[in-house]
């Protein structure tokens, strides 16, 4: 039997984004169980650190990309005199490669050749095992397995406090806490990945007619605020609008309170997974088998595969894994009826005992 290596210090490098660091948490916590005596340091982005601050047993080092070269200098200085046993470089972006250069480690593990891009190979000296058609989370599992962690079923212990939960409850109010709750987190980082506001509204009305309270969540950007206002304008039911009103940990607690979350390819969908809330994911541009809500991939409504075949003449299995499809109106191909049908399926499977 292969002996598990003994590590005293492990550095994790995954800067962004919210969904990806949520995936990575499960790998980090599996590593903690296998290497309970190792000091674990995680270098991540500023926004992501707002969600994962006080992650049990993990020291977070914030890399603020907006500071440019100064951020790299600060990082290098903060690690002066240290030497990690191993760096797990879980990000192939060139920026992450420059960050990896500032982290002193005996071994720097990165992705296999098939997933290496943006000069990733220059910043590592060891690779994880190749994986075929893997979800992003499975890739992170590969890093854990590379340092002796046996195969595991992902679990999460997310860092939020009683105060965060109380604030979420205060924002929701007694009326929204007393019944079934649908949370719609309608906005992705790019407008083309968002479903149409009138269709979100139709689902809100449909859920409301079935006894659900409906809440909108999201950040304070102009895109998210405008989308929420449009949804409310088209809806006939009362919707609680929390867009721009929650910090990330409070949002996590709102998602935890939900019975169902409806979202496109966006961070809150993956946040919901970490607190075991079923997610109906809406996908058109990226393969949900790679980036969908990990525990709820059977609840995805997608038009990705048909568009990939139309644009390339090939299936996902015949192309480089993770190939995206292009188009500004692809999400309009997802019909209200198809999402209603999935909503009914999720209600039947998750809520009716």
Automatic annotation (TrEMBL):
It is an enzyme of class 2 (transferase). It comes from the Bacteria. The keyword Glycosyltransferase applies. Its EC number is 2.4.-.-. Keywords: Glycosyltransferase, Transferase. This is Glycosyltransferase family 9 protein. It comes from Pseudoalteromonas undina.
């Amino acid at each position: 039997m292969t002996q598990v290596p003994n590590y005293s210090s492990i550095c994790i490098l995954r800067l962004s984004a919210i969904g990806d660091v949520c995936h990575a948490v499960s790998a980090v916590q599996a590593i903690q169980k296998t290497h309970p005596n190792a000091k674990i340091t995680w270098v991540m982005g500023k926004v992501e650190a707002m969600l994962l601050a006080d992650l049990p047993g993990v020291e977070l080092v914030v890399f603020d990309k907006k500071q440019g070269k100064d951020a790299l200098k600060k990082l290098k200085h903060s690690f002066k005199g240290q030497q990690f046993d191993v760096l797990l470089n879980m990000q192939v972006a060139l920026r992450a490669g420059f960050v990896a250069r500032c982290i002193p480690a005996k071994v720097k593990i990165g992705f296999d050749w098939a997933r290496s891009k943006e000069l990733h190979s220059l910043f590592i000296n060891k690779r994880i095992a190749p994986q075929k058609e893997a979800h992003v989370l499975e890739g992170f599992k590969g890093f854990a397995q590379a340092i002796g962690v046996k195969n595991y079923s992902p679990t999460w212990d997310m860092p939020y406090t009683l105060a965060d939960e109380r604030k979420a409850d205060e924002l929701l109010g007694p009326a929204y806490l007393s019944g079934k709750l649908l949370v719609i987190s309608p906005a992705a980082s790019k407008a083309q990945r968002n479903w149409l506001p009138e269709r979100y509204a139709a689902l809100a009305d449909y859920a409301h007619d079935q006894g659900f309270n409906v809440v909108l969540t999201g950040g304070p950007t102009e895109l998210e605020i405008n989308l929420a206002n449009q949804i409310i304008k088209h809806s006939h039911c009362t919707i609680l609008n929390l867009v721009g009103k929650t910090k990330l940990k409070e949002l996590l607690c709102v998602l935890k309170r939900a019975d169902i979350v409806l979202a496109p390819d966006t961070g809150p969908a993956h946040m919901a997974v970490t607190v075991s809330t079923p997610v109906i994911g809406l996908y058109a541009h990226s393969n949900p088998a790679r980036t969908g809500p990990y525990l709820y991939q059977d609840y995805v409504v997608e038009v990705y595969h048909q568009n990939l075949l139309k644009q390339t003449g090939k299936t996902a299995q015949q192309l480089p894994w993770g190939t995206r499809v292009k188009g500004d109106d692809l999400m309009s191909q997802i019909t209200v009826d198809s999402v209603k049908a999935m909503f009914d399926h999720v209600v039947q499977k998750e809520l009716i005992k």
